[in-house]
Specification:
80 residues, mainly alpha
Length: 80
């Protein structure tokens, strides 16, 4: 169950990056650097999701915390 929660947290970060990309692309003058950084972040999330070992409890717990926090940070930055 912890592994699934970690994967869900990573997916949440991917969704937050996708929302950031969409929001930036919707602006009259999108910032290509913001879009590129968010796309890079999504790639990193996908890499970490692929590499996460369900048997490594410490890594699973750390990933869950890290990516849940990351999703919140991205969402808060967009609201600011």
């Amino acid at each position: 169950m912890a592994y699934e929660a970690a994967i869900e947290a990573i997916n949440g970060a991917v969704g937050a990056y996708t929302a950031r990309i969409h929001a930036e692309e919707s602006k009259p003058v999108p910032d290509p650097a913001v879009i590129a950084a968010a796309r890079s972040g999504r790639v990193e999330c996908a890499r970490r999701r692929k590499e996460l070992d369900p048997a490594d409890r410490a890594a699973v717990a750390a990933a869950r915390r890290r990516f849940a926090d990351l999703a919140r940070e991205i969402s808060q930055d967009m609201d600011a």
